[in-house]
């Protein structure tokens, strides 16, 4: 499915398509990027393993997290695993490039993935982050959901590799994207 425009207007349909694909393909693990928790709430209880990956602590403001603590607690109570950690496709490398005004390999990888859309980059990133945290199984296909800004507009089937072997990540199918 190709959306005419990116953005949050596609969130509900993206989640529906991802859940339908998971059911049809027998995929138990869904990783979703969600900073406010709104997209993750749409998945709570609808798949055996739902992992919500937030922006890193300090992403918007130093020392702060964008997801309110009560939303995080509600997601966890509903069985969603919530991961907040350094972004695998930026993190420390972005700090170095800002300081020294250069382009570095991981940032080049991120920009290359964005050629397929911001959401595809996010899907790869959050799936690798969830794998590195031990929240999804190694060697199995998962569904990742991401977006362009707020909401979700992209879902992919992929087999993530650990960050140390990220180029071994395999994108099997794009379910939907702008």
Morphology: globular
Helix content: 25-40%
CATH superfamily: Pyruvate kinase, C-terminal domain
Largest sheet report: 6 strands, mixed
Q: Report how far the terminal alpha carbons are from each other.
A: 8 Å
CATH top level class name: Alpha Beta
Q: How much strand?
A: 15-25%
Class computed from helices, strands and strand pairing: alpha/beta
Number of helices: 6
Number of domains: 1
Give the rounded overall mean pLDDT.
Answer: 94
Radius of gyration: 15 Å
Strand order of the largest sheet: 3-2-1-4-5-6
What is the fold-level CATH name, i.e. the topology?
Answer: Pyruvate Kinase, Chain: A, domain 1
Number of strands: 6
Low-confidence stretches: none
CATH architecture: 3-Layer(aba) Sandwich
H-E string:
HEHEHEHHHEEE
Domain Pyruvate kinase C-terminal: 14-157
Organism: Anaeroselena agilis
GO molecular function: kinase activity
Keywords: Kinase, Pyruvate, Transferase
Write a short abstract of this structure.
This protein has 178 residues and is an alpha/beta fold. The chain is 37% helix and 17% strand.
Walk me through what this model shows.
The chain has helices at 11-25, 38-43, 69-77, 91-100, 105-114, 118-132; strands at 29-33, 49-53, 81-83, 142-146, 154-159, 170-176. A hairpin with a 7-residue loop joins strand 4 (142-146) and strand 5. It has one domain (8-56, 66-176): 3-Layer(aba) Sandwich (Pyruvate Kinase, Chain: A, domain 1), CATH 3.40.1380.20. The mean pLDDT is 94. The longest helix is centred in the N-terminal third of the chain and has 15 residues, at 11-25. Helix 5 (105-114) crosses helix 6. The protein is α/β, with parallel strands linked by helices and 178 residues long. Strands 3-2-1-4-5-6 form a 6-stranded mixed beta sheet, sandwiched between helices. It comes from Anaeroselena agilis. Keywords: Kinase, Pyruvate, Transferase. Residues 14-157 form the Pyruvate kinase C-terminal domain. InterPro entries: DUF1867 (IPR015074), Pyrv_Knase_C (IPR015795), Pyrv_Knase_C_sf (IPR036918). GO terms for molecular function: kinase activity.
């Amino acid at each position: 499915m190709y959306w005419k425009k990116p953005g949050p207007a596609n969130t509900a349909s993206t989640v529906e398509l991802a859940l339908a694909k998971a059911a049809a393909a027998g995929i138990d693990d869904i990783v979703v990027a969600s900073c406010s928790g709104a997209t993750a709430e749409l998945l709570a209880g609808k798949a055996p393993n739902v992992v919500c990956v937030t922006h890193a602590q300090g992403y918007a403001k130093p020392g702060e997290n964008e997801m309110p603590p009560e939303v995080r607690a509600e997601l966890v109570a509903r069985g969603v695993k919530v991961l907040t950690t350094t972004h695998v496709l930026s993190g420390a490398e972005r700090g170095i490039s800002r300081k020294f005004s250069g382009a570095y390999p991981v940032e080049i990888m991120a920009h290359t993935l964005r050629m397929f859309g911001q959401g595809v980059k996010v899907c790869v990133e959050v799936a690798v982050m969830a794998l590195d945290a031990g929240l999804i199984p190694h060697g199995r296909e998962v569904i990742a959901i991401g977006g362009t800004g707020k909401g979700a507009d992209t879902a992919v089937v992929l087999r993530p590799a650990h960050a140390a072997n990220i180029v071994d990540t395999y994108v099997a199918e794009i379910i939907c994207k702008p």
